[in-house]
What we know:
Number of helices: 18
Radius of gyration: 27 Å
Shape: elongated
Oligomer: single chain
Strand content: under 5%
Helix content: over 70%
Amino acid sequence: MKYFKENFNSVNSLWFERYSSTFNRLALYKSFVTRLEKSRDFIVCTYGEVSDFILGRCNSTVVDLHADMKALLEIHSDWRGKLNELGLADYKYALNLLKRDIYFMFEWLCSAGMSEQEVIDTWSYQNRRMQSWSQLKDVLDFEEIKFLDAFKRYVPYYSENIKDWMSHVDMTTIYSFLESMNSFGPWIRGFYDLHALINKKGDVKLVQPRIIDNLLVLSIRTEIVIREVYSSLCGKNEPDDLQKVFLYFPELMGDGESACVFKAVADLKNWRLTALRERPENIFEKVDSCNVGKSWSKEQRYFFKQILKFVTSRNYFAHHSYKDDDLNIHVNELCRNVLVSCLHSVLYITVLSAQSTKKALK
């Protein structure tokens, strides 16, 4: 019994010496913010004001918060290592509680004046060497990081047939360009979820797939992204008619090769290829058989057809449902073709737009 008492007192003294100030500050912040959010009184204040008040109350500074975050991440690294080594369930439970504390500290640092990206970057490894602390992005579930990584990884997977064209595209810059648009959030979530659904691995799950739901979001949001690109280029609202958006793109892009592509897309004869009034078995049959652009480059013909396929997809999801079963259980390439048409239409128009404003290419 004496051994256990001595060991307990030793560990307790060590933790008190190293971490008492960190957890005291954090406990005060959590209590204050929780009481504020649950208060029935109408209290007007900003999180910045809350941060200043608590720091003053603790006689602390933002520098102390930096030290606190590092301490929490060091504990996380230590406990995660022990969980992997010993497999004790206690560590798994403790890590979940610690994750909440790390989130509150993340929130406090943002309230104290740092941007989310600055906090993430500060506690990210600058090289491949391991540190004594866990990376913040490995602890908290940041969708922004997950989506960027997925975009950079999966876009080339769906773009093998335009590899040469893609070699001139800076994926991170294009993602940042898209991320600045209000319409992009639902698009990237739909793309991410759709990729996971049509490439699923592991155990069979007796749940109705959500492929059709994500295809609908992706196709409709592709139109909205394209419209927002148009508005960002011309500084005014886009026309209601999507056909006219493509018709006006050439004068905004300032690119001769793409101009003939957009004009051909907006040509009434070609635009009618996207109509599905006859409910064809293959919704892309008319577009695939189109012979427009015989003197064009391979890339021009490819993107011309991909844009028309996107418009066809958008028309299908806006007005039809007769192919939903094929799409939802992914029995053929139709699902993938819809995804690729939306993805490559967005990429083509975004790269041209960014190039016209000298932001995109390497």
